[in-house]
Amino acid sequence: MRSFKSLFLALLIFIPATAYVGKDTRPGVGLSPGSTAPAIRIDKTGNDLLADLHGEYLVVQFWAVYDAPSRTNNLLMNNSVREHYSDRVRMVSLSLDPQEVVFRETVRTYGIDPTNQYLVAGGENSEVYKAYRLSKGFMNYLIDPNGVIVAKNITPDQLRKLVK
């Protein structure tokens, strides 16, 4: 049973990862490098999640359980930041799943650190979704210590080159 889970996890990570390169160059999709990152308000308090992390490099990863490429990229990027960049980069993962129980169970099953995982209330109808222009697919953004978007749709290898 354990070997089946390991094989399943390996296939789940590597097969979609080879297909998801994140080269979205269509105008108007997402925010462009050089833009100031919009505030991220995910709870009823209205507090900006990014305000607490100002002054650090930050990867903001948007994902959903039902979107295999984004789910895989979230896992890969979380593992990469934790293992290689934890002294230079922070990670915030924002799930747009409609059901909290599915989101929580996925985070637990994959062994992702839950302290940087957030469920965005309203999912694809949320202000965060609209502010980051996440139509048709999910992406990630690398934000510099001044709150400016440095890159979007990056892979762990690209992160290494950007945050030397």
Quaternary structure? single chain
Report the CATH topology name.
Glutaredoxin
- Determine the mean pLDDT: 81
CATH superfamily: Glutaredoxin
Q: Helix/strand/pairing class, anyone?
A: alpha/beta
The main sheet comes to: 5 strands, mixed
Q: Can you tell me the number of structural domains? A: 1
Share of helix, binned: 25-40%
* Order of strands, widest sheet: 3-2-1-4-5
Strand/helix succession = HEHEHEHEEH
What is the CATH architecture descriptor?
A: 3-Layer(aba) Sandwich
CATH class: Alpha Beta
What is the rounded Rg? 15 Å
How many angstroms separate the termini? Answer: 40 Å
Q: How many helical stretches?
A: 5
Uncertain spans = 7-12, 14-29
Overall outline: globular
How many DSSP E strands?
5
Proportion of residues in extended strands:
15-25%
List the helices and strands and how they pair.
Blueprint: H1 2-19, E1 57-63, H2 68-85, E2 89-95, H3 100-110, E3 117-119, H4 127-131, E4 140-143, E5 149-152, H5 156-162
Parallel strand pairs: 1-2, 2-3
Antiparallel strand pairs: 1-4, 4-5
Helix pairs in contact: 1-2
Task: Tell me what you see in this structure.
The chain has a five-stranded mixed beta sheet, covered by helices on one side. The protein has one domain (2-162): Glutaredoxin (3-Layer(aba) Sandwich), CATH 3.40.30. Helix 1 crosses helix 2 (68-85). The protein is 36% helix and 15% strand. The longest helix is centred in the first third of the chain and has 18 residues, at 2-19. The termini are far apart. It has helices at 2-19, 68-85, 100-110, 127-131, 156-162; strands spanning 57-63, 89-95, 117-119, 140-143, 149-152. The chain has 164 residues and is an alpha/beta fold. The radius of gyration is 15 Å and the shape is globular. It has five helices and five strands.
